Amino acid sequence: MTAAPVTARAGANIALVKYWGKRDLALNLPAAGSVSITLDGLETESRLVADAALNQDELSLNGRPADAERIGRVLDLMRELAGGGPFCRVESRNNFPTGAGLASSASAFAALVVAAARLFGLDLPHDRLSELARRGSGSAARSIFGGFVEMHSGMQADGSDCVAAPLLAADEWPLEVVVAITDSGAKKVGSTDGMLRTMDTSPYYRSWVDSVAEDVAAAGRAIAGRDFEQLAEVSESSALKMHASVLAARPGLIYWNGASVSCMHCVRALREQGIGVFFTIDAGPQIKAICEPGNAARVGAELESVPGVENVLYTGLGEGARVIS
Ligand code: PMV
Question: What is the pTM of this model?
Answer without folding.
Answer: 0.97
